Amino acid sequence: MNDAELSPTPSGDPVHELRDRLEHTNELLRRMLAEVAKTPSTHAIFVDAGYVYASAGLLVAGTEDRRSFDLDAEGLIEAFIDKARTIFADSRLLRVYWYDGARRRIHTPEQQTIAELPDVKVRLGNLNANNQQKGVDSLIRSDLESLARHRAISDAALVGGDEDLVPAVEAAQGYGARVHLWGIEAAEGRNQAEPLLWEVDSRRTFDLDFCRPYVSRRPVTTYENEGEPPPSREEVRFVGARIAAVWLAERGGDAMAELLPGHPYLPGPVDQDLLIEAEKLLSRSLRGHAALRRALRDGFWQHLQTQLQPRYQA
Asked: What are the residues facing 43 on neighbouring strands?
């Protein structure tokens, strides 16, 4: 039966005409609902990798420092997919979105490996000089809102905890998508913002037993050579300047200039990176050598100030 056959035929009787129009409208609605029923639901998983690394690392390895543990991202992503397959039983997976930060948005080898996984899309924000992610929340909001607006997904599993994700949740819900917040069990306190918990449609937390298979501590390297004297202050100062020169070339003047107002102190993550890099170059541990660590920072600062201050004073 086509639409022409469904069209009401004028009879001259207003009651019959109204009844025919109602039947015509009802038939069109039945057709539309039948088509909608044939269309499978679709879900996607949105993973804030920074949240996952910090929360899972703290829960399993006792640290948020990525350099201190390995995360089996492929195994964890597959576990998320399996969990979604169970929860959204009548739905198909669109893909997994993996949001992380990188210097100049250039994939690290680990991020390249993740990007090659089937059904996974890696989206990169930037990292500033303090190793803080920038732009990740806006990427999540953009993808969530766009997919919901175009009816590409009916359900979104969001793995994260930042309050800045609230607008992303509201935007997706405004287009009819349901947003389900997934989190990692907090080692202590809470690792997800309350406003985010209030806005989502459902919540689920993955415990220690779930996360343990995917996180492993790295062995500690001390870089100690028995019988050898420690390096001199000048040698360590030179290494600090050398590392600053490499960082300046890799991260850019603007990123490194953010450190200048904090002189003589370095943000904790930057100071830790500096120490680890110096120990690699020296093949010696600087732990417990306060004077040598000061010399390392002095060399680092001296190079930055020499290279950057004239530029920003001009």
From this structure: 93, 155
